[in-house]
TrEMBL record:
Pfam families, per the entry: PAP2
Enzyme superclass (EC): hydrolase
Subcellular location(s) of the protein: Cell membrane
GO MF annotations in UniProt: undecaprenyl-diphosphatase activity
Entries under SUPFAM superfamilies matching the protein: Acid phosphatase/Vanadium-dependent haloperoxidase
EC numbers on record: 3.6.1.27
Domain annotation Phosphatidic acid phosphatase type 2/haloperoxidase: ranges: 107-216
Coiled coil: none
Organism: Dokdonella fugitiva
Keyword Cell membrane: yes
The protein's name in its UniProt record: undecaprenyl-diphosphate phosphatase
Length: 235
């Protein structure tokens, strides 16, 4: 009994010490991977069951009620910046600059996160095969499937990459604030233009957050941080 008690106490001390050292990382993993992954799972399950989402059409109609020529131009521009004319070139430039600066681990994280996110989105769309909304004729129509939103997923992936890379620096709060504003406007543009259901946006955000945090945990394993001493060396 004494030996068993010693083992239990030793295990308890080890557990407490581990939580003191890595408790924050575990919390971030839970909030960054499991919670959004569970959210995506709920959305995907409901979609596969064919029940739809009660908030989708009301929010689309509310956005369409705001229709105005000025807003049309604004959200078309935001949508372009949210993918082909903004996010994609920025992703490429970010990876290239990090490689040029010999920040190999940071560049690996950015490259795997952004490329993997795009591939996941391309694979998920035909899997769920959800048709685009057809409540009105969009001024910027899209031809592929709707779920999850590629714009939402791509913009959130870039936002997560930048926030995670900057989290241990003085830039974290400005970058976080800018990322939140950008991601919200990109998502809103897809709803305003009538090319995505709000649930498509939520699914894209959830998938991107889970994916980025998973990649971050693998690339910066063992408690390493971006821009650390071994950031200049290979993996």
């Amino acid at each position: 009994m004494t030996e068993a008690g010693d083992v239990v106490r030793a295990d308890a001390r080890f557990g407490v010490a581990f939580l003191r050292r890595h408790g924050l990382l575990l919390l971030l993993a839970f909030l960054g991977v499991l919670v959004p992954l569970a959210g995506f799972g709920v959305l995907a399950h409901e979609l596969r069951e064919g029940g739809g989402f009660f908030f989708d059409e009301p929010l689309l109609h509310a956005a369409h009620a705001l229709e105005h020529a000025g807003l049309d131009r604004f959200f078309v521009a935001v949508a372009a910046l949210g993918y082909q004319w903004g996010v994609v070139p920025f992703d490429v430039a970010l990876v290239a600059v990090l490689g040029w600066r010999r920040r190999m681990r940071e560049g690996l994280f950015a490259g795997v996160a952004t490329i993997g996110s795009a591939l996941l989105n391309l694979g998920a769309k035909p899997l769920f095969a959800r048709d685009r909304p057809s409540l009105w004729q969009s001024i910027a129509p899209e031809g592929n499937y709707s779920f999850p939103s590629g714009h939402a997923m791509g913009s959130m992936t870039l936002a997560c990459v930048l926030v995670l890379l900057c989290w241990w620096t003085r830039l974290r709060w400005p970058v976080l604030a800018a990322a939140i504003v950008f991601v919200i406007f990109v998502g809103a543009s897809r709803i305003y233009l009538g090319v995505h259901y709000p649930s498509d946006i939520l699914a894209g955000w959830a998938a991107a957050v889970a994916w980025c945090h998973a990649v971050y945990g693998i690339v910066f394993r063992g408690g390493m941080r971006p821009w650390g001493g071994d950031g200049r060396r290979g993996v």
